């Protein structure tokens, strides 16, 4: 029995280090290769020994697919390909290919230069890893090999984010990566056609959340920023360099313009300008509005937002600073946070999800005394706000996508177990499909029953179609033929053709049955009586009286002969082939009942 | 453009609506589907018209009217003479694809391969009853829109009162000098469409991605049945790289001598290459102070759009985006103020205008657009040069209404379409069963009739078409796709007939929906197991005739007799005959004739017995 097997090496009942192994139609595909922001030890990368204990990665995997450039989806890639060792193809979209190495380098710098980690991947490894990347276009069908094909769909979320369909024969899996179902200020909504995969693997970050309208959240956000700035406070917004940052920049830029505000807005990293440049060059990946107006006004050119210098943090007066990274786990955002945390006039707005173990997660869960490195305790007096701007689908959105794709079953990853449980029930109830939520290292096996594509000879098909034309062409018709299987070539032909092609002779099986009739008349007259009787009874069949005196019903032959002993009895020889058995035996029993009395 | 067709039906027809080899418009009919492949607009017809000047030109308006040899001057309002050539003094008109050959409202789908081949789209989609879908890629749509926008703008901003039609009368056309006399289908020539029609046409386009499979046709280039080959280079003897070099050196020579350079061009396409080349050339040639102007109503959009489709560019350009840098260097030319662009002559341009300079502007036919103004302005001085780079129009014909002309004319056609060497390589790789192409490609170009290498050479010879022809494409489709549902597949019993070849008989229900065929297991036969209703039903001939398979093989008599004995038959007698044996079951008054390829069971009365014997026989035979 063919089956699809799925094993998360990361993101199983968890958010972080997304990495899912899929076996389908004899092919092995790895979906994403991320790192975990909440860990600094071995657990930060997926456990590739799951594969390597049985052999080399390259031998096992047919390809790797990266859904988007976020590090929890691609952060382990250089480690995986250069340190563990993988030489096969890695597929991602063009924007992901452009941006991913920059974020990897950034990540490497923080890990090695700032935290002094040894045995981390090097810049050269990032470059070598990227050489194995094959860029894909949206909706392009990429033939990985003769049997395995993949196709990217728009996922929203961040620039270049894609959902991938993985297909072998008629079996398919769709992996959503991260996505959002509502268009925002700079990206469109995820979309997929009714591709009816055997399995949909979806993220479930916001499995239990139904977010209020986007506009309300935006208004709320602007109000909070505005209030803090008015009272002279400093506002810190930890973000990742690409993604929500651009969204919030567009939002604040328009607001500042409209309200004529003077407080400075800064963006903390040199990446920003570069990042915005990517958005300009890959404008075809943004939403309708931005694409339509980019010739007149490029939304990624900001008038009010300036580059941040470390010294600015101590400037007096209000300001808004976007700083990376987004979960306050390291880098500049954490530094600024430590500086500003003590003042209750200040505010930190967390615009996205924070992984367990990060400072972001701690303050969001209400912790106000943080133990920092060197046993220092940081007291958080500043206002802490959370505002979900991360572009993940909420429960409603996930249900919507399931409805769009119409999968046979669903598998949840990239979420918390408790929330998944809720969503799983909902999906099973609403769509009546099974839903799985394996933990890391746990394998889900789905038996599949793929239909088999074969070539049918046009002659056979047409014969059947012609028969079906009347009275109702749409009515299913019975078809009989022979399937010839040679290597992987399957052809369905008529039985005659199959015999001919194989050089075999037909073996004819015939039956003859003698029916005794009481009839003193001559044989010819008996035959005539049989003919008129059958003609009147078998209206739907071709009944013929042949010149030699025999009667045929379709291919069934009836001959009348004299009885050797009894002149008052005639013998009917009914003879038919195996192929006409039903009719033959029906006729025999019909004739055994005798003929009606001849009308005088 | 290269279109590949495979897996089609025998009666597949190609309707050729355009005779222009690089501006094709073919309609393919097969399997009750009608697909239009490209819809190019032949604009060479405009060469027969007088240029449309932006400001009134005394020279053009004073051209003498044309009169017949006998002095009859009834056409002098419509036709003007200039240096021995006759031109129609009217709004320029275009030669549309054939609209009568096939009912265009029956076209289901239009596939556009590139922006040059979509210029006739509004004529097709707007007034023919077309209700289908148009498929094109995003760059094609965006650039195509710019080209159409420019065209409409050029024509609409100089409204011309006069619309000549007398000359189109067949009897009158005969009397005109060449090339007017020989112009084809002049009665069907049409004026330019409006922006409203353009927008409506573009709204019918559905974007397709790179290498996306559209559900209607799964074409893979290899071993296709028919390859329709159009849009090869129009200048097979010119090497594009060499031409670009010549372009640069002529340009430098002119401006160094204090002259101006005019480059008639489309707003997108070759101009990007020219600008890129100049970018590398400007400093070394000492041209840093020469202003470059690009004038087109869509100049800005074109320059911006060129930078955002990196995914469709060659590898080198793609890598630039990853840096991130704009893929084309004209961004830097603009930033450093070396290249300036304007929507038209009017406005900012007039105040910035400095000479000597280089101007890129349209239209390459020299019949409308800002280029007309520069031809009038610079034509009288031999210091100036006009350099033709677009290969679509004969430069001599384009220049005809400006004669006599003092300015220098350089012809550097840059055509990057496939040449014949590349085509023959492609054909070798792809190996299509048949090649279809415009007739122009099946013989050497008229001007180089000895160059047998400048034509398509393939076996079997390419099928050629000309305007308004219908080709029946020659092949038979023998197999159609069908899917066997898993439940049915499970029930099949394959048997190996020969090494590597297995067979299985299939009795299944055929479902056909949306041209897709599916085989499902047959419904379980209704058992006539008592019940009054059933009994009556069994009286009738079975409704759904279950087809019995064919049989093959032979019956070994000894084993057959053993089998009979095992099943309780006794008193069996075997007689040899000429061709086989007769097995007699004396007690049952039944005999079975067994020969190499046939078996005959002669059995009276007892139906049960017949069925038992049948099943015994079948055990020795294979079913098909």
From TrEMBL, chain A:
Stretches of the chain forming a coiled coil according to its record: none
Keywords from the named record: Cytoplasm, Hydrolase, Metal-binding, Nucleus, Zinc
Cofactors named for this entry: Zn(2+)
GO molecular function terms attached to this record: hydrolase activity; metal ion binding; RNA endonuclease activity
Main location: cytoplasm
Keyword Zinc: yes
Any Pfam family hit: IntS11_C
Chain ranges of the Metallo-beta-lactamase domain: 16-210
SMART domains: Beta-Casp (SM01027), Lactamase_B (SM00849)
Gene Ontology annotations of biological process type: RNA polymerase II transcription initiation surveillance; snRNA processing
Localization: Cytoplasm; Nucleus
Keyword Membrane carried by entry: no
Domain Beta-Casp: residue ranges: 245-363
Lineage top rank: taxon: Eukaryota
Family: Belongs to the metallo-beta-lactamase superfamily. RNA-metabolizing metallo-beta-lactamase-like family. INTS11 subfamily.
Name of the protein in question: Integrator complex subunit 11
Source species of the chain: Lynx pardinus (Iberian lynx)
UniProtKB/TrEMBL annotation, chain B:
Subcellular location: Cytoplasm; Nucleus
GO BP, sorted A to Z: negative regulation of transmembrane receptor protein serine/threonine kinase signaling pathway; regulation of cellular response to growth factor stimulus; RNA polymerase II transcription initiation surveillance; snRNA 3'-end processing
Keywords: Cytoplasm, Nucleus
One GO CC annotation: cytosol
Main location: cytoplasm
Pfam families registered for this protein in UniProt: Beta-Casp, IntS9_C
Database matches in InterPro entries: Beta_Casp, Integrator_9su, IntS9-like_C, RibonucZ/Hydroxyglut_hydro
UniProt-annotated stretches for the region Disordered: 514-539
Domain Beta-Casp residue range list: 271-399
Function of the molecule: Component of the integrator complex, a multiprotein complex that terminates RNA polymerase II (Pol II) transcription in the promoter-proximal region of genes.
Family under the similarity heading: Belongs to the metallo-beta-lactamase superfamily. RNA-metabolizing metallo-beta-lactamase-like family. INTS9 subfamily.
Assembly behavior: Component of the Integrator complex, composed of core subunits INTS1, INTS2, INTS3, INTS4, INTS5, INTS6, INTS7, INTS8, INTS9/RC74, INTS10, INTS11/CPSF3L, INTS12, INTS13, INTS14 and INTS15. The core complex associates with protein phosphatase 2A subunits PPP2CA and PPP2R1A, to form the Integrator-PP2A (INTAC) complex. INTS9 is part of the RNA endonuclease subcomplex, composed of INTS4, INTS9, INTS11 and inositol hexakisphosphate (InsP6). Interacts with WDR73; interaction is required for the assembly of the RNA endonuclease subcomplex in the cytoplasm.
Protein name as annotated: Integrator complex subunit 9
Annotated gene: INTS9
